[in-house]
Every structure is written in C-alpha cells, then in structure tokens.
Amino acid sequence: MRGVRGAAVLAAAALLTSCAGTVAGTAQPASVARPPASTQPQGPDPCSLLTPADANKLELAPEPEFTAGDKDQLLPPFCQWEPADPDSDHDPVGVGLSEDLAIEEYFASREPAEILELGGLQWGRYESTFGDTICNLAVKLDDFAFVVIAGGHLDGEEKACELPKAAAPLVASQLSG
Q1: Cystine design at 76: which of 47, 98, 124, 130 (Cβ 3.0–4.6 Å)?
Q2: pLDDT tens track for 45-58
Q3: Average confidence (pLDDT) over 15-24
C-alpha cells in the first residue's frame, strides 16, 4: 500500500513539475469557496448506536469515524471504531444503520448462517465473501431498515465475532429507546 501511495505522490510531483512556470501578477484567492465535506451524519446516525462508554467497555477508541452511505453501491451510513490498543489483533468494529435499503439487498438475498439472541433481538450472522476472518451480524428493523455490525480477526470466525457479539446488546439498547 505504501508503494502505491509513493507512486501516486511521485506521479503528482512529476505532473506539477512539468506544468511549473512563472506568471506575472499577484496571487489571488479563489472567489468561490466550497464548504468542507460533512463528517457528520445527515440522515441515520450509526455513530449514536455505541456511546463512548460502550466503546470503552469494548476496548475501542471512544470516537468513531463516520462514512456516508451510498444507496447506489448498497452501502448504508457506517461508523467505525478502531481498537483502543493499536497493537490489538482485532479489526475495527463497524456499525451500519440503513433506513432505505432492504437487508436482503445488502446481503444479496443470502440467509444468515445462524441466528443469535443478543440484547433481546434476533441477530443474523451472515458469512462474509472475505471468509471467516470477518464477522457480520445484522438485525432487520423493518422492510427497508436494518443495523449491521462488522468486525474481524485473522484467527477465524470465533475470534472475528467476539467484538460484534459483545457490541450487539449495547447497540440493541440504543434501538429499543
């Protein structure tokens, strides 16, 4: 990955160098300023489904990173919490909340591999196309609404599902309120 980034930086530098030249005059700021892209949810807020205290219980960083959804790509809005310990073997935990996408579309009509009772809700564990090192738990809220919790671990399904299973009751408590 670093090699790709390095190549991109070198290509950009070469492009800018080839266009370099001196122009007479005084530099002026652009007349149209664009507002910065929102880093906060504009619709469903998956970040509200785990509180900072919940994240601490799970040994995750208290502040998640929000990613806007893209219905055309079948992606709900998502928040991702990194492990608090940078040396953790666990992948980040992601929580997605959809209010305009059917769970059947998201999982390409696959049935859950198992149903788990967590936090008073029936969560399906869906197998990942990336193998058993990724764990996907999801609960259907209605025809076009669901929550998904994703996590991972290189040691396989049991370890991969540890954090999503621990997070599910905490997330469920936010849904019932």
Answers
A1: 98
A2: 999 999 999 999 99
A3: 36
